[in-house]
Amino acid sequence: MADNTDTCLVVPLYNEGSVVGDVISAALAVFPRIVVVDDGSSDDSAAVARRAGALVVEHPLNLGQGAALQTGFEAARLLGAEYVVTFDADGQHRTDDAAAMVERLRQDDADVVLGSRFLDGRTRPGALKQAVLKAAVLYSNLTTGVRLTDTHNGLRALNATALATLRIRQNRMAHASEIIEQIGRSGLRWVEHPVHIVYSDYSRSKGQSVLNAVNIVTEQLYR
Amino acid sequence: MLIKVLLLLAIAVVVVLSLRAPAGARHLAVRRVSVTGFAALAVLSVLFPDAWNAVAQVVGVGRGTDLLLYGLIVVFLGYLVTSYRRFRDLEGQITRLARRLALDEVADDLRPARVPGSDGDPPSEGTPGPRTRPGAA
User: Fold this and answer.
1) Nearest CA in chain B to A187
2) Counting CB atoms within 10 angstroms of each CB, which of A84, A171, A191, A219 has the fewest?
3) Domain A7-221 CATH (choose: 3.90.550.10, 2.40.240.10, 3.10.20.30, 3.90.1150.10)
């Protein structure tokens, strides 16, 4: 289905009111079904996303991005979606990458298609960010048995099998590692797909603190 | 020195337990036994204050009060990590509750699109049960 009506875009949203409207409007042109999970934003994010045309599920309080994704997965399941794409609300991800990833699921290349910004030279993160990301990749490859080039990429595409298998319990940022761990344990077929991450001034200003790596490792150990 | 070995061992045990402690009834029982033991120890300390000094001599610490302080630090560390675990469990429960609320709020919009014969289904039933999947380990 080239019109992507079999696909549900899951967008975790937290205080992105200034950009989410444009992101949703643009994405709707490619993916007509979008579930936005507003994670207790204190601004008007949820209203903006709803006006832009997304189905908005609102957490009554802020739980974290991992929790928002899991809520989105359950919503997508209830909607009977054949494919699910996890997509950031801040405009970092490109819809044509997402569409290409869903196409690979339709070809049955894999159950999970994981975006990677390091498969080609298009994405240029800063030196420190690159070092931290590489360290995360090394750690993840050693501990999960799934060998990836980019472990903390928010752009992923899942088919119904993967959707029924994955269950995110890490509420905050450790969910990225958790997803990979579950892929490794469950024997889902996975493949990486080169994507371009758009580091705008906006996304850079909101970006993850490098210190967050400490939180992620702690959350993984003390689960 | 014996005290160093004992204290390091105790700290190690606390850390290991915090990583792999089983939740549920067994965990609760251990907590209750610990509290009872703690109370018994407190009673004994009041009745026989010199006992701490004697024990301190045996393990190679100067005074009973020092030994008490060391013990307190280990217990506090244990308290810290078990509290963290309980906090995480609680957080998981709040998450499930909040998710249920959020999804129920839009239940009418969350029915499969374009499925013939699905119009008779009540919103809360007839949907695939997301909470009883076999992969939910």
Assistant:
1) B135
2) A191
3) 3.90.550.10
CA of A69, closest CA in chain B: separation in Å? 11
**What ipTM was estimated for this complex?**
0.84
Nearest CB partner across the interface for A164, out of B103, B115, B133: B133
Q: What mean pLDDT is reported for chain A?
A: 89
- Contact: B113, A221; criterion CB under 8 Å: no
Q: Where are the domains of chain B?
A: 2-78
Q: Is the distance from CB of B45 to CB of B52 less than 8 angstroms?
A: yes
The DSSP element (H or E) to which A185 belongs, if any, is helix A175-186
Residue A108, class by beta-carbon neighbours within 10 Å (0-12 exposed, 13-18 middle, 19+ buried)? exposed
Domain ranges of chain A: 7-221
What number of other Cβ atoms are within 10 A of residue A114's Cβ? 25
User: Of B85, B103, B128, which is closest to A75 when you measure between CB atoms?
Assistant: B103
What is the pLDDT confidence band of residue A204, given thresholds at 50, 70 and 90?
low
Do A111 and A158 contact (CB within 8 A), yes or no?
A: yes
